[in-house]
Design goal:
The protein contains four helices and no strands.
């Protein structure tokens, strides 16, 4: 007896997307080393989070923005 194949509609990506409110606080000093290791070793799971938004304090945002500007002018 021949196997019967069924065709299913591919689910939209948004069907799987669960929006989560940020509820966990973590120190930057604890987060950065983990992200650096994941980036250095090219862990695929890190790519799953590249579009996620991160909330930072206004003073850190100002420092990062200034740092970006300095890097662009020195390159």
């Amino acid at each position: 007896m021949a196997a019967q194949l069924r065709v299913y509609r591919a689910p939209h990506e948004s069907d799987f997307e669960e929006l989560q409110d940020p509820t966990v606080r973590i120190r930057l000093a604890d987060l950065l080393p983990l992200l650096a290791i994941a980036k250095k070793n090219n862990y695929l799971w890190l790519q799953d989070f590249l579009e996620d938004a991160v909330t930072v304090t206004p003073d850190l945002y100002d420092v990062l923005r200034s740092f970006t500007a300095v890097r662009q002018t020195s390159a």
